[in-house]
Amino acid sequence: MDEMVGARIRAPALALAFPLGLPLPLPLGLPLPLVLVLVLVLGQARAADDPLVQPSLVAASASIRPGGEVVVGVRLRLAPGWHVYWINPGDAGTAVQVAWDLPEGFAAGALEWPVPSRFEAGGIASYGYSGEPVLLATLRAPASAAPGTRARIAARLDWLVCSEESCIPGEATVSLDIEVAAAEPHPSAEAPILDAARARLPRAPAGLRATIVAQDDETIVLRVEPPADLPLDGRTAAAGLFFPEREGLIEAAEEQAVRPVAGGAVEITLPRTSIVKGRVAEVRGVLRVKRLQPTTEEFGVALGADAIDTGRKGQEKQERAR
Amino acid sequence: MNVARSLMTGLAFAAVAAIASIGSVDAADKEVKIGAPAPAFTLKDTAGKEHSLADFKGKIVVLEWFNHGCPFVVKHYGSNNMQKLQKAYAEKGVIWLSICSSAKGKQGYDTADGHAKTAQEKGTASTAILVDDSGKVGRLYGAKTTPHMFVIDAEGNLRYNGAIDSISSAKPADIDQAQKYVVEALDALLKGEAPATTETKPYGCSVKY
């Protein structure tokens, strides 16, 4: 059944490889360079099982000690113009699914997702990744793992990959073998990929505080109080970009107003949908920020904001308390 | 010196305003309110015949956004779930309008004839298949995904807006396990009751405006 579905939806993928709308049998009389480009595109489509997404599994070290840990990454190399989805996909789409298949006694920690981006087309906004996202997880070997044996680490992946024009589902099983060894593990050739992936995870700066200071049917207001060494400059914060983990909570395509408040804090007004009703007790997610000095750097910080009070009076009470 | 140093230590942070223009779907969405009159529209079917929402006053109406290239739509048509629902509720007097808002050149777009042919192949049993390639009606309703479902009561008021069911996957095997929001809304209205669930987050591919 799955295969039938796969076959049916592969057609648009091929059609997309021919954006000029040329018929599949290569027409004679085309300029040679164009024919070469088409042949190359077709060649790639044939070479890989799914030309839009090339999945692989990478490990930070080639070996693992009994009872030890290894960081592994699920790497998805996407064709230009295509994206896959974060935990909360936004208005449409669905998150990448990872199901581990590990040897007896091995365990995988929670998936760690890079800071997402927002993709907007036709007034519909999604949260996800283009390029080469890497989802990280830490695997632990059992103390009973026997040195000298090899452990096969596998993961079944399911994804939806979309462009502005089209969406195509995909699935793959990726695996790698890792040696169980008593010796200190050495970084693998792929270790830099994992280091780069770690740098793209949301950070959790010590002292960062976030609270829900007001809410009504239309909005949720987050106050973000950064620590002294990581101030948010409200004057340059013309708009915010907060990604909530909870699906359907905010209007993904609408603007998030950011305003500076006393003490270097900012308040971000999240436009609420009518889907999630009633008081929201907490909002978790990632705030994308940009550091301008000493060098420009974009990254995300993980936020967990609890409501400080019920209803729309929260903000006034908070201000009186100050 | 101090000023320079504080600048050097990187004091300026800005929430990233990386996203440019914001579309009109959500603005329209706010006018589409549960319990309020569903926005009027007129669209042509695959034979070129015009249908207006007002034509169906006195009957319960389902609006179903589709795009046959979308794997979530394939889930519900490939399994025959959508066609079964269309037939079952037609027998109960429900009007079922399947609407395609895919723009020309995008996934799911087709000519009126193309839509008619596909509908015949798939056994689509809607009252009418409506072509909205300008996206005007999709935007009017704030249709975000395929499928995205709306249920309108006999008085013309919107009573349900959201997902077809509760499992946001592209796997046909999930259909039976899911809570069937549209079925529940229709059954409630047919019994003269208010639907218990009135709004959910629709799931699927984005509408290809």
Any chance you could write out the topology, listing elements then pairs?
The complex is a heterodimer of chains A (322) and B (209).
Chain A: H1 2-16, H2 32-47, E1 53-59, E2 63-64, E3 69-78, E4 84-90, E5 97-101, E6 107-108, E7 117-121, E8 124-129, E9 134-140, E10 150-162, E11 167-180, H3 191-199, E12 209-215, E13 219-225, E14 239-240, E15 242-244, E16 256-261, E17 265-271, E18 282-291, E19 297-307, H4 314-321
Chain B: H1 2-8, E1 13-15, H2 25-29, E2 42-45, E3 50-52, E4 61-65, H3 71-78, H4 81-90, E5 95-100, H5 112-122, E6 128-131, H6 136-141, E7 145-146, E8 148-152, E9 158-162, H7 181-190, E10 205-206
Parallel strand pairs in B: 4-5, 5-6
Antiparallel strand pairs in B: 2-3, 2-6, 4-8, 7-10, 8-9
Can you describe what's shown?
The complex is a heterodimer of chains A (322) and B (209). Chain A has 2 domains: 51-199, Sandwich (Immunoglobulin-like); 209-309, Immunoglobulin-like, CATH 2.60.40. Chain A has helices spanning 2-16, 32-47, 191-199, 314-321; strands at residues 53-59, 63-64, 69-78, 84-90, 97-101, 107-108, 117-121, 124-129, 134-140, 150-162, 167-180, 209-215, 219-225, 239-240, 242-244, 256-261, 265-271, 282-291, 297-307. The radius of gyration of chain A is 23 Å and the shape is globular. By secondary structure, chain A is mainly β. The longest helix of chain A is centred in the N-terminal third of the chain and has 16 residues, at 32-47. In chain A, the strands form 4 sheets. In chain A, strands 14-16-17-13-12-19-18-15 form an 8-stranded mixed β-sheet. Chain A has a 4-stranded antiparallel β-sheet with strand order 1-3-9-6, with helices on one face. Chain B has 209 residues and is an alpha+beta fold. Chain B has one domain: Glutaredoxin (3-Layer(aba) Sandwich). Helix content of chain B is 27%, strand content 19%. Chain B contains 7 helices and 10 strands. Chain B has helices at 2-8, 25-29, 71-78, 81-90, 112-122, 136-141, 181-190, and strands at 13-15, 42-45, 50-52, 61-65, 95-100, 128-131, 145-146, 148-152, 158-162, 205-206. Chain B has a 7-stranded mixed β-sheet with strand order 3-2-6-5-4-8-9, with helices on one face. In chain B, strands 7-10 form a two-stranded antiparallel sheet. In chain B, strand 8 and strand 9 (158-162) form a beta hairpin. Mean pLDDT of chain B is 89; it is low at 1-29. Chains A and B meet through helix 1, strand 7, strand 8, strand 11 and strand 14 of A and strand 1, helix 2, helix 3 and strand 10 of B.
